[in-house]
Amino acid sequence: MYERNDGMLAFRLTGLPDSRLPLYLYCVGTHEEKPQIRPDGFPVYQLFLSRTGMGKLKILGKGDWSVNAGQMFVIEPEVAYEHMPHSKSGWELGYIGIGGESAGSVLHAAGLSRSEPRNLKDMEQFWLRMTDIWNALDQGCTDGWNNSALIYQLILDIARCRVSHEEASSLNGSSSPVNAVARENDPGSEAFARAIELMHVHYQEDLLLKHVAEAVGYSVQHLNRLFHQKHGVTGHQYMQRLRLQKASKWLQDHPQSSVKEAAEMIGMEVNYFIRMFKREFGETPVKKSNSAIS
Fold this sequence. Notes:
The chain is α+β, with helices and mostly antiparallel strands. It contains eleven helices and ten strands. It is elongated, with a radius of gyration of 28 Å.
């Protein structure tokens, strides 16, 4: 294994990228204490980790920044840039090259595609993981498929760490994306519309209200309050009415089907279904089905 005496990891390229992989590792390494100037950019996305020291970053058409220890940034492919260490700062700057058709969309979806340096909590964890990737590559004990999985997991973990850090900052008064409290104070938010959509899509599954609430970032109590405000019922009542309405429509469209089949279609026990159906529509599903035939 070759590692330079200064402790930095040598630049390592992987083998030919596998076209079947939407995301692949292109390279990994660290930069020496000297300016890096790339007027033609780099062929793939680069994820940089600043471990210690300080430096300067300039990206053509985007801006100039100071880069401190404990920060990360991403540079898009084929974009001119340069970075250089502050004198005698001992700047440790690691990087991972990420290629593949989905590299940009994955980084963007994870919220990591912005160019300006941003703080990354627990930098040492991610630096060690980058070092592990380098060592595995250097020792020849990994392959393209495994590297792809490692890179994808690394992106997700950095994104999760970034989100946790931003949420903590918001509690201390710093600006951040809309948090859960702000969402819960907005009864007309997209999250409530999403809850309704989930119910309509998954009414046949064993879908509990608490799972709907978790999926849209609400508490069950708050979701119930919104249902009361908008529909005059609890979330559970809304979901039950929806299921009964779907079963009623299904019986009308399938008059030869049994009540048992209608109950199973919406995931209800037959006797309970008959009782709830009569409470909702004032007649049993048998009579409803017969009236549809006549």
